[in-house]
């Protein structure tokens, strides 16, 4: 079975961990395309500083140019309110009627999956691609529980660099960013004084 993968996030900024997830998903033979979708209004957290929409979109565009399977989607900027996955998936289902959708879920989000808006509906509409993080000892337990409860989950065992976006915004570290994003941030002064 082939999927269009949905990779949503604040991408504030788009860091090395995001890059590694995108690179890994694009390399999977069962993935036709990855939609990189920056949040308009993050539903689960409110960062102290949210870079302007145009800059977060541009960072995603820069990265999409590096991966033939990746495509920027600004679908969450086409509607009002918080960027809930269920709402985005419903819109994508209309656009990609005959396609299977898979939502990428970082290892840090797996424990909160049942708290997502309309999770019970969402798990019937999509498959989840979950990244196993070695430091999360309860990961397998959560996944087994969700599968028993009817969710479809594909687990990818891959070490992804752990990056704190908050710390990165306060101290831009070249080693924690894709080179093109580091250059964009330096050129624009995006997080100066944040």
Condensed summary:
The chain is α/β, with parallel strands linked by helices and 194 residues long. It has 7 helices and 6 strands.
Elements, N to C (H/E): EHEHEHEHEHEHH
Radius of gyration: 16 Å
In helices, the fraction of residues equals 25-40%
How would you classify the helix and strand content by structural class? alpha/beta
Uncertain residue segments: none
Share of β-strand residues:
15-25%
* Number of separate structural domains: 1
Task: Report the CATH topology name.
Answer: Rossmann fold
Overall 3D shape: globular
Give the N-to-C terminal Cα separation. Answer: 44 Å
**CATH structural class:** Alpha Beta
Task: Please give the number of β-strands.
Answer: 6
Q: Major sheet: order of its strands?
A: 3-2-1-4-5-6
Average the pLDDT over all residues and give the rounded result. 91
Main beta-sheet annotation:
6 strands, parallel
**What is the number of helical segments per DSSP (H or I, 4+ residues)?**
7
SSE order and pairing:
Layout: E1 3-9, H1 16-26, E2 31-38, H2 53-64, E3 70-72, H3 85-95, E4 100-105, H4 119-125, E5 127-132, H5 139-148, E6 152-157, H6 165-170, H7 179-188
Parallel strand pairs: 1-2, 1-4, 2-3, 4-5, 5-6
Helix pairs in contact: 3-4
């Amino acid at each position: 079975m082939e999927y269009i993968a949905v990779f949503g996030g604040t991408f504030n900024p788009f860091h090395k961990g995001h890059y590694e997830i995108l690179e890994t998903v694009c390399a999977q033979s069962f993935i036709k395309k990855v939609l990189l979708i920056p949040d308009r209004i993050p539903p689960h957290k409110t960062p102290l500083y949210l870079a302007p929409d145009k800059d977060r979109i541009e960072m995603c565009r820069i990265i999409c140019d590096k991966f033939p399977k990746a495509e920027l989607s600004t679908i969450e900027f086409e509607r009002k309110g918080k960027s809930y996955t269920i709402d985005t998936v419903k819109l994508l289902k209309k656009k990609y009627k005959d396609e299977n959708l898979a939502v990428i879920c970082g290892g840090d989000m797996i424990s909160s999956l049942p708290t997502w808006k309309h999770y019970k509906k969402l798990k019937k509409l999509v498959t989840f691609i979950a990244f196993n993080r070695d430091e999360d000892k309860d990961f397998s337990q959560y996944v087994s529980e969700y599968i028993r409860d009817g969710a479809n989950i594909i687990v990818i065992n891959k070490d992804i660099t752990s990056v704190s976006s908050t710390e990165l915004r306060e101290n831009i570290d070249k080693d924690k960013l894709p080179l093109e994003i580091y250059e964009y941030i330096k050129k624009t002064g995006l997080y100066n004084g944040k």
